[in-house]
Amino acid sequence: MVSRKRQRVSRTTSLEDSKSEPFEKLPDDLVICILSKLCSTSSSPSDFVNALLVCKRFNRLGLNQLVLSKACSSLFAIRAKNWSESAHRFLKLCVNAGSVEAFYFLGMIRFYCLKNRGSGASLMAKAAIKSHAPALYSLAVIQFNGSGGAKSDKDLRAGVALCARAAYLGHIAALRELGHCLKDGYGVKQNVTEGRRLLIQANGRELASVLPSVTLSSVPTKTTNKKLLGQFGSGCCALLSDFGCNVPAPEPEPSNRFLTEWFALRGGEPGPSLRLCSNQGCGRPETRPFEFRRCSVCGTVNYCSRSCQALDWKVGHKLRCSPQVAADPWLNVGPIGAHPHGHMVGAEAGHHNLQAES
Ligand SMILES: [Zn+2]
Ligand SMILES: [Zn+2]
Q: What keywords are assigned to this protein (predicted)?
């Protein structure tokens, strides 16, 4: 009896041995290589965390600097409700390993959510130095608004320079922002033609990013417009109404989604007399009262940037703004007005551009 039990125990042990054996035989550098690949291609944080839970060895090697330095942006798609000291610690490990995505993600959280402006901005700058387009664009927004400082800290020229670098790397919001700056002569010498060209380019890229099944070699022709319009019907938001087709708004980046969720959990109020950017997928809060530009027509919405304003106008604010404005396009063309606090405002900017770009 005793010997049969012993036999059974030894058979189970040998089965477990044979299960873990393939991993045991792999040399450390090969496991690190496989985990690095996983770290750079994970579609969610759980993909990578599950691999770390396989065994102690995976856990140890998975936290190796070589692995963490390869972290992709999806690895940091942490939900704000799950933010914890251990999530912060994991991000710090990735920062120490030199992950550019971690520089940006933790930079945004520190700057906007934890109000640790200096550390947040310097992390974003580290990502920007490595040509991280979203970091370059976020720093541009900070410069345009003088975020974290006073109104006198606004540096429009620096904002335009950062935006140009991000736009060159193909960042859509940066392209749109730069287009508006050139068109209005904001922080840069006015060049309406070049501004419009960039806005058309931004729209083309927007279309390509939200319609992965449609290949666009260039800006769509009238025939393409009709086809797309027929394909997508009228049920979606009119993001690209400039081109006569209706498609959903683009997916927000993980850091923007985090900011949106973070402030939603706090009642949508970033602080006393502070407001959030009204563009749904942005989530950026004001860092001082009246920092953001507001719609000069209805006065009920505020934007961190021209890019957010133009995008929100297209995806729905034109229908929610003043009813007579939305109904009569001729009322909607005019110069950008001035905010009582001296900020540039104007929902008409969005619509005006629609007309210019179509
Ligand atoms: Zn915004
Ligand atoms: Zn409005």
A: Metal-binding, Zinc, Zinc-finger
Q: Count CB-CB contacts under 10 A for residue 154.
A: 18
**How far is ligand 1, taken at its centre, from the CA of residue 282, in Å?**
5
Q: Domains of the chain: which residue ranges?
A: 98-234, 254-357
Answer CATH for 98-234 from 1.25.40.10, 3.40.190.120, 2.40.10.10, 1.20.1090.10: 1.25.40.10
* Global confidence as pTM: 0.77
CA 240 – CA 204 distance, rounded (Å):
9
Cα gap 14→317, rounded to integer Å: 66
Asked if residues 177 and 137 have their Cβ atoms less than 8 Å apart, the reply is yes
Q: Which ligand is nearest to the CA of 140?
A: 1
Cα(326) to centroid(ligand 2), Å = 10
Q: Which residues of 222-246 are buried (b: 16+ CB within 10 A; e: fewer)?
A: eebeeebeeebeeeeebbbbbbebb
Q: Mean pLDDT in the chain?
A: 79
What's residue 61's pLDDT?
Answer: 86
